[in-house]
Design goal:
Length: 275
Amino acid sequence: MLWLRINAVLKPHSNIIIQPYSGRVVRQILFKLASILGLNDFLNILSSNAPFKPYSFTPLFLDGKPLYKSPDDSNPLILYADKRYRFTFSYILNNVDDIAFLKGFQDSVEIYGSRKIDLVLDRINVIDESMMDLGLKYGDYVKMVFVTPTLLQLPKIRKMSKINRYMLFPIPSLIFYSLKRHWNTYAEEKIRLETWRTNYSLRVVNYSLRPRTVLYDKNTEIRGFIGYTIFQILSRGKNILEKISKLLYYATIVNIGKSRSIGFGVTKIKLINKV
C-alpha cells in the first residue's frame, strides 16, 4: 500500500461564494482535474460507493482553520481573491501513471462555471505502509487533535440496519475499529487486532472536546466533535504497540470515522512529553 499525499494552495482570481462545507469545493476541484487530464480510472474512484475509499481530503483551510458554516450562521461562505487557502489530498498509488494527476496542480482551473482559481503544489509525500509507525512505547502520552467534526459510528447490531448511532467522545475501540477495517481493505500486511482491547491500552488523561454541527448543504446538518484528547499508552506488549502505532499514523492520512474521505475527522497526532 503506497499513498501519495499532496498539499496544495488555492488562489481565487475573484471573490467566490461557495457551498457551506468547503470540502465540497475540494471535491469539485479533484473531479475537474481528473476530467481535464482524462483520468477515467481516477474519476471512477472518486465516484465509488465503496464503504472505504482509497482516497481522502481535507476541507479548505484559511490561517490554519477549516472552512465550514454552522446552521446558525446566516452569512455565506466566501473565498476572497486576496487570500490563500490550503487543502490536503491523499490517495493510493496503484501504479506510477497515477502520478500524472500532479500535472493538474500547475495551472488555473474553473469552478462554478467560469470562476477561475490557481492551484499551486506546496508539498508532496509518498508514504509506504512500512513507514507508518509512531514508535509508541509504554507510558507515552499521545495527543489527538480532532481538527474537523469527527463522527464515530457504533457498529451496527444488524448488518442491513439503516439506523446509525454516533458517539461524541473518542472511544479508542471505535477509533481503531474504523481504522483497522480501512487498513485491511488495502494494505498488503493485514492487522489482526481485537479492537476492544484498545480501551485498556489507551487511558484518557486529559481532554477538551465540544460538539460541532456543520452544514453540508442547505438541507443536511452533520454533527460530530472537535478538540483534543490526550491518551497515555498502557500496553507493554510489542505486538499491540506496533499495531496501535501503525493505525494512529494511518489516521493522519485517511482521517477518522464516517465521511472521512470528504474531510470529516481530520486528525493531527503527536507524542508529548507530559500532560
